[in-house]
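Escalation from tier 1.

The customer reports that the assembly of two entities below gives different C-alpha cells on two consecutive runs. Tier 1 could not reproduce it. I'm attaching the input and our single run for tier 2 to review.
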Amino acid sequence: MLAEINFFDILVLEAFYMTKLSEAQIGKHKVVSIEGGASVKDKLLCQGVLPGKEIAVITRKNKGPCVIEVGLTKIIIGGGMAEKIMVE
Amino acid sequence: MKKIAIIGNPNCGKTTIFNELTGARQIIGNWPGVTVERKEGFLNFENQKIQVIDLPGIYSLSAKSDDEKVSLDFILNGGTDLFLNVIDASNIQRNLYLTTQLIEMNIPMIIVMNRHDIAINHNLEINTEEFSKHLKIPVIAINSHDKEDVYKLKKLISEHTEKPDTAAVKIDYPDEIENIISELEKALECGLDRCFENKRWAAIKLLEKDFYALSRSGFDQKEYDHFQKNIFAIEKLHKETTDIIIADYRFGFIKGLYEHAVKRKSDKRQRTEIIDKAALSGIFGLPIFLFIMYLVFKFTIDIGSSLISFFDIISAAIITKPLEMLSAFFSFPDIVQTILVSGVGVGIQSVMTFVPIIFCMFLSLSILEDSGYMARAAFVMDKFMQKIGLPGKSFVPMIVGFSCSVPAVMASRTLESRKDRIVTIFLIPLMSCGARLPVYALFAAVFFPENAALAVFSLYAVGILFAVLTGFLFKKAVYKNEVSHFVMELPVYNFPRPKHIFIHTWNRLKVFMLSAGKVILIGSVILAVLNSAGHDFSFNKDRKGDSLLTYIGKKTSVVLKPMGITEENWPATVAVFTGIFSKEAVIGTLNSLYSQIDEAEETSSIPEMIKSAFASIPEYFSQQSDDESSALFAAKAKFSNGKLSVYSYLLFILIYFPCIATLGAIVGEIGWKGAALSVTYLTMLAWAVSSLFYQLTAGHDIVFITASASIILLIITAFIAAGKILSGEKTNADGKNKKLS
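Tier 1 run:
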C-alpha cells in the first residue's frame, strides 16, 4: 500500500515537471512549447509535433537525439532540435 | 497543351511516378534564381500530350525554404490544369498535412496514394472512395511499379485535365479564428496580387504568420497594427499562437478523415517494436549498425570486386578491341587512334569497371532504405556526427568511402539538405578508398618493412583526422548558424521489395554512367593524348617514357621538392599525374618508369578475351596477390632521406586530387563549381600537409615551412570568408523579413 502511494506521488511530481525533450524520461509526455525559430517550429509542425500533443519518448541518448511516438508514427528528433522542445 | 504538376512530401515516391508518367525523356534544369532542381517531361496518352512538372518534395507550403517557395510560387502563378498530390499510403496522416494546405488553395487536383503495396502489407485498408467523397476530388491508390496501376493513373489524369475537380472542402477553425478570417478577407478585398484571389487562403496564411504572405498583402501600418491586435487577443484567449492553433485544427481534420477512411485490420507494428528494442538500444544499437555496415562493405568488396575483371575484359572485348581493330583497318592517323582507343575505349572501359561495385553498393543501400533500417542508422550515428555538424545519416556515405569514393559521393544523395550533401562530399575523398590501399601497402612493404601495418593504419587515421577537421572547419566557419535540425519519420520495418529495389538501383547506376561517365571520358581522352604526344607535339600511339606527360612530370617535380622528392626522382611526379586516372595507377607507373620495362600488352582475339573474362571470376577468389612491388625496390635509392620523404609522399597521395571517376561523381552531385572548390581544397591541403610534415621532421627549410603554414592559413581564411558571404546573404534575407514584422 505504502509503495503504491509513493509511486503515485512520483507520477504527480513528474506531471508538473517541465523539461527539455533532450533531457526527458522515457515514457509519456505532453509538449508544452517549442522554443526554436520559425524553421524549427515549422519542421515539427509538419510532423505533427505541436504544443498540447501527447508524445511518448521511446529511446533517448544522453543529451542527444531521441525517438518519439506521435499518433501512430514514430519519428527521430535530432539532438539540436530536442533541446528546443519543452515537455512536461 | 495541358500542364500538370506533381506535388508531395519528400520520399513519397514522387519521382518514381514522374518517371513512370514521362518515360526517359526529361528536361532537367534549375528553377530561376535558386538551386532547386526543376524536372519537366511529357506524358503521352492516347494521342494526348500533357506537360508534366515535378515540384520539389516539401512538407508544407510555408515558403520558408527555397523548395517551398518555388512550389508556392508555382501554384500561385497559375496556369496549371491539374495537380497530382502524391501521398505515401503507408504514412497517410503526415502526408495529408500538405494536402490540407493544397485544399485550402482551391486548386484543381487529384490525390495519388502511392506505395499501396506497403500499406496492404501493413494491413491498412484504405477506402479511396470515402476519401474522394469527403474531399470531393478523385483519389486513387497505386503501386508505382505496377504497370496496370500506372495505366489507371494515366487514364485518370487524361480524363481530369479536361474537366478537373477542385477541392472545395472547408476546414473549420474555432470561431474567433473564423471571425478574423472573414474580417481579413474583407481587408484583402483591395489586394493587388493575383495570389490573393483566394481570400480565405490568404487570410489563413496571414494568421500563420507567414512573412511571405504578409509581404504581398499590401497592408499599411494601421491595418497591420489592427491585425496584430486581433491576433494578440486570440493568443491570449487560447494561450497558444495562431499558427499552432491552425496546425492543430488541420491535424484534427486529418484525424477525422483518416478514422473514417482507413481501417487497420491487425497491427504489424509489434514486429517493428521488437526489432527496434535492439536496433535503437544504447548498448546494441552501435554494434548492430557497425555489423550491418560491415556486411555492406563485405558484399560490395567481395561480390563487386570479383566482377571487376570480368567487366573490364568484357568491355575491352566489345568496345576497346573493336575500336582498335577498326582504326588499324582504316589506318587512322595516330592522334585519332589514341583518342579512339586509349581515350574513348579505355574511358568506357574504366566506367564499366565501376559498374559492379556501384551496383552492389546501391543494391545494399536500397535494401537498407526500403527495409526502413536507414532511418535507425541515422539515429544511432546522430550524436557522433553532430559534433562535426552533420546528421547521422551522412555516416553511411563516409563508410562507403573506404571502399570507393565514387559510390560514396553518389550515396550522399540520400541526405536531405544541400549543405549536408556538400560537406559530406568534401569529406569523402579523405577516406582512403580501396584503390589507395595497394599504394600504401606496397610502399609500406618496401620502405617500412618492420611496421608496415602501422604505417598503413596511420595513413587511414590521418585521412579520418583531416575529415573530422574539415567537418569542424565547415561547422565553425562556413555554416556556423546552421545546426542540422533533423526530424525524420521512423518507418515501420518492411520486407524489401525486390522489384522496387532493382529499379531504384538501376536508376542510380544509370545516373552514374551518364553524369560521371561523361567526365571520366573527357579526362581519359586528355590523359591519353598527353601520354602519347611527345614534348615536341609529335604523335605516337605506342609511345613509352618520353611522352608529354613525362615531360610535364619532369618539369613539375620541383613542386614536390618540399616533400623531399628530388628532381631525379621525377617518376614520383609522373605517378601523381597518372594517379588522377585512378589511384592504383601510381604503383603501375612507378613500376614501369623505375624499371623501364614496358609491360607487354597481351594480344588476344575477342572470343579468347570473353573466355578469360569468365575465368576471371573464380580466379579472383582463388588467388589474390600480385608481384608488382619488385621494381619499387629499385626506387628505394631514389627517395632521398628515405622513410620521411616516402611518408610525406604517401600523405600527398592520400589527400590530393581525387581520381577522375570521383571527380565525375562530384560534378554530377554538386556541379562544376563545387567540384572545382573541392579538388582545389584537397590538392592545396595535400601539398601543405605533406610539405609541412617533411620540413618539420627532416627538411627544416624555413621558406617551405612558412609557405605550407600560410597555405593552411589561407584555406582557413577562405572558409571563414565563405561563411561571411553565406551569413551575409542570410542576414540580408532576415533583415527583409524583420522589416515586415
